[in-house]
Amino acid sequence: MPALAAFLRRHLGWLAVHPAAEDAATEIDALVQRSLRIARPRHDRRIPVGPCIANGCRGRLTAVARDPGSALPSAVECDADPTHTWPPERWRALYRNLPARPTGLSAREISTAWRIPAGTVHWLADEHQWRRSRDGRQVYYAQEDVLDTLGRDRLESRGRLERDSTSP
């Protein structure tokens, strides 16, 4: 890396006007980002929230709880528009504007909380006859059935994903 950095610094003037400068900058940026992910892995917790509440946006919101000391603060982020971001102090107001969703846990939430493959979640649901509800194509499994099968203590130790229809 030091040799590459010295080369780039030495030839910066020539590289900046070269026709492939933009492509090179994009590749170098991607390399830096990959290197940073390897050198400083993040342990952000990502919890699906629901559809974006911004008018006309078709994105999905995710609460991102970042590690202490992270350069970025925790936030609720939209996957379609990076300007649709809510900091923690605005989460309560955001919650009031979210559309009602069926109670229960999605296969993705269960998979994330217990760190098991989504296919295993579906198998467990069939094997243990979990009650389910649908919201369009999305299936939600009855929280009590999931907790009876997988255990309450593991859920609480994995970031308190547990929720019910009355709590924010």
Describe this structure in words.
The longest helix is centred in the N-terminal third of the chain and has 19 residues, at 21-39. It contains 8 helices and 7 strands. The chain is elongated, with a radius of gyration of 22 Å. The chain has 168 residues and is an alpha+beta fold. The termini are far apart. Helix 5 packs across helix 6 (118-127). The strands form 2 sheets. A 4-stranded antiparallel beta sheet has the order 1-2-3-4, with no helix packed on it. Helices cover 43% and strands 17% of the residues.
Topology, element by element:
Blueprint: H1 2-10, H2 12-17, H3 21-39, E1 45-51, E2 60-65, E3 75-78, E4 85-86, H4 91-97, E5 105-106, H5 107-114, H6 118-127, E6 132-135, E7 138-141, H7 143-150, H8 152-157
Antiparallel strand pairs: 1-2, 2-3, 3-4, 5-7, 6-7
Helix pairs in contact: 5-6
What fraction strand? 15-25%
Radius of gyration: 22 Å
* General form: elongated
Number of contiguous helices: 8
| Order of adjacent strands in the largest pleated sheet | 1-2-3-4
* Class inferred from helices and paired strands: alpha+beta
Kindly, what is the distance between the CA atoms of the first and last residues, rounded to a whole number of angstroms?
48 Å
Average predicted confidence as pLDDT:
81
Profile the largest sheet.
4 strands, antiparallel
The portion of residues assigned to helices is 40-55%
Q: Assembly type of the shown chains?
A: single chain
Low-confidence runs of at least 5 consecutive residues: 156-168
Number of E-state strands: 7
What is the helix/strand order? HHHEEEEHEHHEEHH
